């Protein structure tokens, strides 16, 4: 007998299931999901809001620990280890547990202590325990508290939907500001480190004002983008830059501050994002940093028509339609004609940098095929523990000597930036060349 029902009539037939279980006999029968973990939501009896999201993670490997609960502190649920099925599998393996319940603490709720969370969960999680588990359930976490999350703003953009700006305390007690669009609650749109604003006047305790620390790059793919400046044969320290996608504005502000002779033009579709960047991420525009509210595709086409040129074009824009399996850029930017336009926009020996985040293998292959048809010299740098990959497309017909130039430039670039920042660890001082894969 084929154990799978042939149609909906089989599925609802008593005779089918009687025959099914007679064939199964004593063998265990399990329902499994193909990719994602089973997810359950637990509401607060006081507010009716969803307070906990619980992911059931099962492993085939046998372990001494049969069942446990892992509480993710507030603000860290966006990390790969906790936000993806693959990451949660790795977490379960790390704690050597056969069935692990990974619990997310959702925003818009109050969590006074880890003990309160344990009390809320203790009765409910037992219902998820394997029948063979009779021991007391261990509840694990990364520390002794539930973390700190302060929602500074919650609003809605006509183009991008609902969003929050929140301040989150990291595990090393640094404070970070994040922009998150709630259509994709596990993707950080923008992140910046906060610092106390310097002031000459003595203020009362607790009244210090916070501001963005533009010496620090919070996103690994932004570090990779800045590292890519080392590919420039000319004007590495004073490039003209076109950036498609603003976000919180931390990338253009970093370039503006640390490359005092550079000029940056940013194209952003959503005017609400510009407002957020100015109000919450300290974005300041001037004659060296300009923001155009425009469709990026139309802007690029118009710039080509007008004969504009840049040293670097950076594509760092998110894709709103996540059903395609690509977080960025939107697929229209990866069409051959648009890639050709970007090539026309850069000077000879110039550079196009693309932040590619694609989980769809077919779409990924198609994107690579189109890139290779337009750009003759390309390198990529994968971002560890992220789906992001930064692709460097160099406008040259003579690839000889590029890596030697890049090695020399990278030494100059890191030395230049280290003198201009207060952090010695902001930059990955490993040679850029050692982190790259040539695309052929």
TrEMBL record:
GO molecular-function term, one example from the UniProt record: spermidine synthase activity
Membrane-crossing residue ranges in chain numbering: none
GO term, biological process aspect, one: spermidine biosynthetic process
Gene3D superfamilies: Vaccinia Virus protein VP39
Single GO cellular component term: cytosol
Domain of life: Eukaryota
A matching Pfam family: Spermine_synth
InterPro entries, sorted: SAM-dependent_MTases_sf (IPR029063), Spermi_synthase (IPR001045)
Protein name: Spermine synthase
Source organism of this protein record: Larinioides sclopetarius
